[in-house]
Amino acid sequence: MLIGIIALIFLGPRRLPEIAKKVAKIMAEFRGTASEFKETWQREVNFEEEAKALDINALEAEQPVARTESIDVSTKDAAPNAPEIKEMDPAKFEELKAKAANTETAEKRETVETTNDKKTWL
């Protein structure tokens, strides 16, 4: 009541109904926006809860069944074998190196030939 009387004094009887309509429209828009925000918030919260539920089910399904394997105690404590260094004939090394280079160039040619094919240009 007090606010109405103060508004009547400051705004006058002619402008009070116009301003009351504007205030009512603004309040209606605010309520609509607030309800949309609330609905969106609820949907997001429900979506997150459903996603968590799905993830939990997926995790439970993915968990492997515990297997019990017998481990040989003598091999468990043994140190791994050290890598062996072998001598190689330099001629054989060059031959293997040339063979690897030929294989790589052949693979590159095949790749170029298949990429230039009209069927696979896309």
What string, H for helix and E for strand, traces the elements in order? HHH
Number of helices: 3
Percentage of β-strand residues: under 5%
Which value, in Å, is the CA radius of gyration?
40 Å
Average pLDDT confidence is 76
Task: Give the helix/strand class.
Answer: mainly alpha
The major sheet is characterized as: none
Number of strand elements: 0
Give the topology:
Layout: H1 2-62, H2 73-77, H3 90-115
Primary descriptors:
75% helix, 122 residues, mainly alpha
Short description:
Helices cover 75% and strands 0% of the residues. It has helices at residues 2-62, 73-77, 90-115.
Could you describe the 3D structure shown?
By secondary structure, the protein is mainly α. It has one domain. Helices cover 75% and strands 0% of the residues. The protein has helices spanning 2-62, 73-77, 90-115. The two termini are 75 Å apart.
